[in-house]
Amino acid sequence: MTKNPLVSIGVAAVSFVVTFVVLYAFVLQPLMINDSGFQTPNASPTINPQPTTLTPARDLSGTWKTAFPTKFNIQIDGENVGYENRTMTWVITKTSSESIVNVEVTFTNAGRELVADSGYTPDVSPMFLKGTISGTRLTLEASGNYYSEPVGEFNFTSDIIDGTWHDHWELLYEQNVYTATNGLTLAKQP
To answer: Are 75 and 169 part of one and the same domain?
Structure first.
């Protein structure tokens, strides 16, 4: 039996078309041609480039206090050098934005143990922080060039604020004053 040359040509043409489609779909299409040659585009396009803030779930304005001293660990240049027990009071006031509050933080040192010559610079009381509210989440931020991250992340209800304090800054030394995870709890005062 002899092979029909047209069938062989047809099979070869179909094979060529399939190879071209696969090559186009998986190799050529993901590449973009621009003035500088081939360039791979971003793998995942940004759908919503602007972060969204949820409406605050509750009004946080008022005075909030710790019921007992809370342990704040102290690190200098990444090394544990001691701790400080603090009682805290926060006075939270509204701003013109419903998702931003001003937080005046005062604290009293109820006992401190430090390694001698640790380089620890005591935090200032009062300190004035900006609070950003999203739903039932409060993020505290300090102003100034020395702070590179939020001072605290907290969850709240109508009468409790609970979360983690993380006061990290650099000047002469890298200083980190922090609580255990969810180690700081404040209750709303009447």
So the answer is: yes
